Structure formats: structure tokens, C-alpha cells
Amino acid sequence: MSRLYRLLPAARRLRIANDTLQEASFARSSAARIAAPTSPHIRWQHAQAEATTSAAGADHAPQEQPDRSQKQIKYTSESYPNIQRDSRFKELNSDDVKFFKDLLGSESAVIDGVNQDALSDLEGFNADWMKKYRGKAKLVLKPDSTEQVSKILKYCNDNLLAINPQGGNTGLVGGSVPVFDEIILNLSRMNKIRSFDDVAGVFVADAGVILEAADNHLAEHGHIFPLDLGAKGSCQIGGNVATNAGGLRLLRYGSMHGNILGIEAVLPDGTIVDDLSKLRKNNTGYDLKQLFIGGEGTIGIITAISILCPRRSQAVNVAYFGLESYAKVQEAFKEAKHQLGEILSAFELMDHRSQALYNKATGARLPLEAEHPFYCLIETSGSNTDHDSEKLNAFLEHVMGEEIVSDGVVAENETQAQNLWQCREGISEASQHFGGVYKYDLSIPLPELYSLVDACRDRMNEAGLLSADDESKPVLDVLGYGHMGDSNLHLNVSVRRYDKEVEKALEPWVYEWVSKRSGSISAEHGLGLAKKEFIGYSRSETMVRLMKQIKQLYDPNGIMNPYKYI
Ligand code: FAD
Ligand code: MLT
Ligand code: ZN
After folding, report:
1. 244 Cβ inside 6 Å of ligand 1
2. Within this chain, do residues 80 and 160 fall inside the same structural domain, yes or no?
3. What is the pLDDT of residue 106?
4. Which stretches does UniProt call biased (Low complexity) (predicted)?
């Protein structure tokens, strides 16, 4: 990326960098954003498992996507034989399918594997993004209205047919795909934007609207969706709410629990819960919509949301640093909060291994030539370019002068900014590129956040499971990255193949490690199937009992996303 300005690790050279940095800020106008030729975000298509990345014309953009083996994913029921199908649930027959076809009308709204062989059409809906979980659903339903969702659920509840709600199927805990033959209720046809009030900043839309489409719409009105994540080209806003997704700018905009103003949902018995409030303040009793946020489809289907959206920032800066130790990363974070204050919109951490794997998987050159044990990506967003540049320069001068940061680059235009972001966002895809990945998404107090990665690597080595070169070893590498600003570590154990020995060495060891430090075993991805058994490491018996009571109240027949969550 030749036009990036390089920061030099000495005060004398920093002056040069500062001169250039005056020009390094760029206005990230909504027009420029919309006009971007291609999205750098990963798109996960149902039909094809291959994710694509693109950042046209930039030399740090991913250069190639080597072929990944399209090996068959094992059925979840075979990988986890201890999970048994609930015999209370009815098996689908032609009469059931006829009911749904009559209700939904359009051919494309039903994928019918009951009356015909539709295995290949169903595959993308049955398999998850990590290629770790695979269900055996024979029916996918794609309603296009809340009324249709209501009638489907009522029928399923009356007939004890289990349901798996599904958005963009980008979830990372196995919650979005069935375990057995649950009907997949996919929200992709519920994709209308209902309204946007550009005075109050309130956006109302169907649950199946793709996150990126929602954000593009808001950009046209000078606003931003208060959530951004690497799967934005595929995930749906309903799925984001159902998982209480955190993402890259939670540090700035806060969580779904704070931003969601209203929800329209359908309960298992078909009741439509019309709580699509646009009010910022509404202290009239229990805030029941919060139960759907992070509910992972276990108590009802979210059909629409209303959400508070901030103004889109005029000036956005992105910088990428190399640092020599985790202690320096913490110092840099402290300084960023202190000196950048209200304009700091992201502070992301990547270790050397995660960047090396990204480079290996994509062929993209990394922004810094020399290797550093740690990298950080910092973003500022504000309303005044000069003011932001001044603050950023003062910050850079300090962290360089004090040798907190060893080297770094600042983007000077949007393409460069996107490419720097791609070094962070592209890790997810890279982590599973060579076979699969065991993902742990953890909240850990900052001083100890990275120690888990070292401890985990030692553990994999001691068990003789890890080798960078020896193909007979299942583990390829152990990576750490994540949302430093939210004390959220992503520990990824990248594997050549899923292997029970690796799983046994990791679980419950990782959860015990986190629990001892009063962390959380799921910071933002949820519990799904992957972490269901381990909830006790983060929640007390009393809390779990209360959750079970809520589940029982909303879904007495247990048809909503069974075998998951709780
Ligand atoms: P799905 O995967 O389809 O479903 C997720 C869960 O929600 C399932 O349990 C499903 O049953 C339920 N569900 C979906 N839609 C509804 C609905 N309308 N009503 C009720 N239940 C529903 N997560 C983060 O928090 N932060 C990140 O930075 C982040 N980055 C990611 C990057 C990549 C490349 C990928 C693949 C995933 C990432 N994720 C991240 C995971 C994240 O949970 C999802 O991307 C997203 O929030 C899920 O949305 P979805 O529409 O794909 O939902
Ligand atoms: C991220 O922050 O990149 C996501 O949560 C996905 C992942 O953990 O890989
Ligand atoms: Zn994340």
C-alpha cells in the first residue's frame, strides 16, 4: 500500500510522520461509502461455502483465495452422539408440507425435501459457517410477512414440529442450523425497510434485512447502523439482535441492548408481540423486548426491529500499529482512551500469528514489513477533520515518542482504511481456511486477556497436537485477536480437521480458565449448541433456573430451536 504514510519509531523521524499525518485524515462521506465498488466484507452464500473478499486496486488487498477442500461435514448427530432427538417431536409428512405450501404460495418460499430429493438445495441451510455443524432438515420455509410467520408457528406448536430460526447463517456457535430434522424458518424474504426518521435517527425494518443493506440505506441519510462486523454482507439485522452481536464498534455505540428501541416478534403459539416502539424512553413495566435480544431464537421469532442510529461521522481515521508486547498494547489502549476520548470508535487487537495466518490464507501483504508480536487497529470517528487529526497526531506523537508503539501506518483514503480493516476482519475466514477452527469468544479482565492464548498454545504443544508443518497433527496454530476495547478475546485454535482429542483438551479447560478469572465464556457470539453445556461457568444456578422458567413460559412445548442455548 504505497500511499500509506509510515510512522517511524523515533522522535526525530516522528516529525516527518506528523507532517504527513496532517494529510492522512480522510472524509468518509456517505457518498464515498456507497460508491465503493465492492464491499470488503465477507459474504457467506448459502449455495457456496467459499467466502470472497475484495478491495479493488489496493496492493494490500487479498491477492488470491486458494482452493479449500469441500469435504463433507459430519452430521452433528454423529459428532455429538450424546444428543438425542426429542421423541415428542413429530416427523414431517406430506400433509404438513401441503399446509405450508398453501400458506406461503410461492414456489421459492419452500424447499421441500420431504416429497422429493432436495439434499443439495438444503445443504447450505443445514451446514454452518465453520463447517462444524450439520443438520438434517428436510424443509426450509421462507415466509415474507409477520402473519405468515405467525401461522407457521401456530401450526408447528399445535403439531409439535420443532423449528430452527435462521437469518444469514453466519452464527459461530451452531445455533443457526438444526441438529436433527427441525424445520428451518429462514427470514431472508422478510427484507423490507419500513421507515427511517432522520430527525430522531430511528430506523425500522424487517428482521431479514442484510446488515450491510441497512447500513447503506442509512448512509444515504447521513446515518450509520450502530453495529458493524465482518459478516455484514450476509448476516441479517434480526440475527444480529437474536445473537446480541457486539462487533467492531461496540466501544463507541454500545450494545444492541441499549440501541434497540422496539421489537416485533412472534411467539411459538402464533401470538404477534407488537412492541415496535420508536420511543427512546418508555418506563412502563418490564422491558420484555430485552429477552429477545440475545435470545438466539429460543423464545420466538423476531420479525422486525426498531433501532436508534447515530449520525455518520464526517471524518474517519484508521491506523495500524506494531507493538512489542501485550503490556505495550495495554498502554496504547490507555493512552487512546485518554487522548482520543470521544472520537475513539474502535480499538482492535491482533497477535502476530493471526496476521501471519491471514497472510497465508489470502496472499495479502501485511501493512508493516517487519514482524511484531502484536498489532492494533485504531479507528477514530468525529465530525471535524482538523480537530480529529490534531488529536490523532498528539496521540501518535506520544505513543511513538514513548516507544509504546514500534511502527505503524495511517490510511489516507477509504480504500486503504478498508484494507487495514480487512487485516482484522479477514482473520475469521483465515482461521478456518485450512480445515476448521475451534472458536472461543471470551470476556476476560484486560490485564490477563492475552495470557490465555499462550497458555492454550502450551497446552496444545504439551498434548502433542500442534505443528505448523506436520500434517499428521490436527492443530495448525493458536491465535488471539479481538475487541480489546471491550475486553473481548477471540481465542482461535485453527485445525486441519475437527478432532475429538483437540476438543477434549480444550473443553472444559478454556471455560475453567476463564471462570477462575471471573470472565464470561461467551462475550458476543452466544451459546447456541457449542456452549450450551458450559453456561454454568458464567451463570449461577439461580440465573440458569430463571432462564429455564422464562423458556417454559414462552415456549411450553419447547419447539423453538431445541437442543440449543438452555
Ligand atoms: P444466524 O447465524 O442465522 O442465527 C444466529 C442465531 O440467531 C441462531 O440461534 C438463530 O436461530 C437465531 N436467529 C436468527 N435470526 C433470527 C430471528 N429473526 N429471530 C429469532 N432468532 C433468530 N458476532 C459478533 O458478535 N461480533 C463480530 O464481530 C462478529 N463477526 C463475525 C464475522 C464473521 C466473518 C462471521 C461469519 C460471524 C461473525 N459474528 C460476529 C457472528 C455473529 O453472531 C453473526 O455474524 C450475526 O450476528 C448472526 O446473524 P445471522 O443473521 O447470520 O444469524
Ligand atoms: C470477529 O471479531 O472477528 C468475530 O467475532 C468473528 C470471529 O471471532 O472470528
Ligand atoms: Zn468479535
Report:
1. no
2. yes
3. 83
4. 48-60
